[in-house]
Amino acid sequence: MITMDDIIREGHPTLREVAQEVPIPPSAEDVKLGEEMIQFLKNSQDPEKAEELHLRGGVGLAAPQLDISKRIIAVHVPSIDPEKPEAELSTVMYNPKILSHSVQQACLGEGEGCLSVDREVPGYVVRAARITVSYFDKDGNKQKIRLKNYDAIVVQHEIDHLNGVMFYDHINEQNPLHLEDGVLVIE
Ligand code: FHF
Ligand code: ZN
User: Is 21 a catalytic residue?
Assistant: First the structure.
């Protein structure tokens, strides 16, 4: 079981590496890792389990955060609308790739945090509002999905980890709360 002790923190060199692509179809070991990453996210969002295991709530996790420099990410974003459970995004992606992105940009109104960063970093993290991503699933099938708004932000945060990029790299240094015109603010 993955716990907070398995997650490396900023300053660890692995977080600044470009992670290696994984062989497709994913090995049994990489499939198991993906399942454990999703389970961690589910546990972290379960109030009882999170308290018991001292987990910080998370919606995404990238293998480099476990000191595994492989291009594997997990996202578990629950649907905000109980009437629409199919809106949940819960996937493991092997070798994900952003094929295209919107010109329009977006950011979370609350800013971002990271399981590998034990401090508050204020500022808007401006990203693409919509992305098209290709990836391989656990069976080695190639998938292509379009994501927008919150889902798109989370997946970009995770893919950044595969490229050694941290969320605060995107914050305007001079003025962290400055927003250009047209940036969609997701509340
Ligand atoms: C999180 N937590 O998941 C943040 C951090 C925008 O690389 O967003 O570092 F638990 C991955 C519902 C809504 C339930 C939000 C991407 C953030 C990715 C993890 N929590 C939440 C929730 C959350 C990081 N990460 C603050 C831990
Ligand atoms: Zn992160």
Answer: no
